[in-house]
Fold this sequence. Notes:
single chain; mainly beta; eight-stranded antiparallel β-sheet; flat; disordered C terminus
Amino acid sequence: MRNxxxxxxFGSGSTLSKTAIALIALTIFTGASKAEGLPGVFQGSxxxxxxxxxxxxxxxxxxxxANVYAGCAGTGGKLRQNxxxxxxxxxxxxxxxxxxxxxxxxxxxxxxxxxxxxxxDNIAHLNLFDGLISARSISADARVAADANTxxxxxxxxxxxxxxxxxxxxxxxxxxxxxxxVAGLGTVTVKRIVRHDEAKKGSIKVDMLHIVAxxxxxxxxxxxSLINIGHALAGFxxxxxxxxxxxxxxxxxxxxxxxxxxxxxxxxxxSVPCGGTNGKTVTASLDALSVxxxxxxxxxxxxxxxxxxxxxxxxxTTAAADHVRLLGNLIGAxxxxxxxxxxxxxxxxxxxxxxxxxxxxVVDGASRGTVKTPNERINIKGMGYVVVNETxxxxxxxxxxxxxxxxxxxxxxxxxxGLPVGAEIIVGQASSVVHPRATTHLATAGx
Length: 447
């Protein structure tokens, strides 16, 4: 897989499921009635605990505890906060994690000449791995301040009280990014800070404890798994766009499909940052994919663009795949190309999926030729049905994304492929959205 001109830090902001199976993620940004003041978009998040997906039950039980976001349009000068108390996670007879309380906050302000963001996370009484790591309190604090000429970041207010790791007291003034080895577990990076200070965009991310399991251990953590404790991220990016934008594309995904879903994930997924792609088309490509007898693709590519074109704000995303075979020879296509585009000009939104086509389609042994008509449903005996060129075209007054999917297989029957009823497989998805008003803007994560 190759990626060029990756969007980087300002990828997608926060996300919420649009549907029960999370085919596309959306964030509602609240703030001023318009993105008035210093032009630009915010980035901000805070949470108490986050675990990597390979930890298993821990991921579901403690993922992003007390999570809070600022969103691209910011908070409009209003404080957002989220709290959680009594967080506990046990593995066997041992506690992996105990926290008395977590509180996260987000606050952004904007004037004609300045913009600021302040994100915090505060933890009271942390106990990790039955006392291997403990602290009376942890405070993550990330700030960004922008004016017409500079963007400055600061995490100096981040602090610990009575931090202890593997029997040793850690000074409250410990240097950022100090890595401490922990026998029988791995490493702990204390006050891990990632900073970007540029004229156009600035951001600072602080994870107060970044724990990596680097070996088999008595706590049931797989080698390579991660735990972040005490997170705050603040950022601001200048943009010339008059509207917030969003969207994305991916080549394939599967939901509720057992091992297949894990093997595919969301293949070469790209998203449109809410401030656009700086006039560049971002591209990701894949040479070949083969997942047993379930999905084969010879090569594929996704692209995203968000920016100004001929005086209009434009979002365009695409996904393309050649020589696709799904479930052996049950479904095949010589080529799949999906295109989603939204254009905002003269206070009018126009949505389109022009350029979308599925060529050389074969379903259950029957040739279907080239399909350009939206939402063509084909029933498949002993499986369910597939929707070809599945299209959700947004109306001009809507804040919903335009979405198009090349092939969308719905499994509704017991079958010989071992796919559970309720499973879904998508090959080729693109989405786009643009809207001028920050109070109602939706920014897709492209998935």
